[in-house]
Design brief:
Layout (H helix, E strand, L loop, with lengths): L8 E7 H9 L9 H8 L4 E9 L11 H12 L5 E5 L1 E10 L9 E2 L2 E2 L1 E10 L1 H14 L5 E5 L6 H10 L3 E6 L11 H6 L2 E4 L2 H6 L5 E4 L2 E4 L5
Parallel strand pairs: 1-2, 1-8, 2-3, 8-9, 9-10
Antiparallel strand pairs: 4-7, 5-6, 11-12
Helix pairs in contact: 4-5
């Protein structure tokens, strides 16, 4: 397995959900310039296109500003000429789950398990969209090197097809590299042409300006970001 990328036409595919929860949530780096970040990751490559795959956040009573912040961020990304954004969607389901103690034991009362109803959001479509674009672009000979920013093992098959059957280079960048509770997917490691981590220092260097503008007017970084 090569440890460096090839200095040729390079397209970057970002699993937005994985990047956010792996590297950005709870940090000061959420106002990320993903084009600059891609170039920093691959300084010897010609990064021609960055495809960002995400889903629009639903408005929730517990965090009513989350959707507004995301809309602002997506407007900011749209000002970057290399970036294209593609959308999946969220599905919300109510699940009935057993209650657990801090030690992980199931909580019971009078010999019966205690349950709670939990609202769970699931992102749908983004991984399929990313896989489809990766395969389609590879078959159209749009890149020499692809880089996928994810730690989602669901993307093993499309990466394997592009590297093994088409003979192209596909690197994997792990957003969870600095999380001690998460490991690099073994399956992704086996099919990737090269591996790189996401580091906080790189995120810090690649923040968007606090104020940008598009044809609708100024775009301001949210205060809580």
């Amino acid at each position: 397995m090569s440890t460096t990328a090839d200095a040729r036409r390079t397209w970057v595919y970002i699993d937005g959900f994985n990047l956010f929860y792996g590297s950005l949530k709870g940090t000061q780096y959420r106002w990320l310039d993903i084009a600059a970040f891609s170039r920093l990751l691959l300084p010897k490559n010609s990064v021609e296109r960055v495809k960002y795959f995400t889903a629009r956040v639903a408005v929730r009573g517990s965090n009513p500003q989350a959707a507004a912040r995301q809309r602002t961020y997506l407007r900011a990304l749209a000002t970057l000429p290399e970036v294209e954004t593609y959308y999946g969607h969220y599905l919300s389901h109510v699940h009935t789950l057993p209650l657990a103690s801090a030690t992980g034991d199931v909580i019971t009362r009078n010999g019966r398990t205690e349950f709670a109803r939990v609202l769970r959001d699931e992102e749908k479509g983004s991984d399929v969209n990313l896989a489809s674009h990766l395969l389609h672009d590879a078959h159209l000979d749009r890149f020499d090197v692809a880089v996928v920013i994810t730690n989602d093992s669901d993307l093993v098959t499309p990466i394997d097809l592009v590297t093994r059957d088409l003979g192209l280079v596909v690197g994997v960048v792990n957003p969870h590299a600095e999380n001690p509770r998460s490991r690099q997917s073994v399956q992704l490691r086996q099919v990737a042409s090269f591996l790189k981590p996401v580091r906080a220092a790189a995120l810090r260097k690649c923040q968007l300006p606090a104020t940008l503008a598009d044809r609708d007017g100024p775009i301001h970084k949210p205060r809580t970001w």
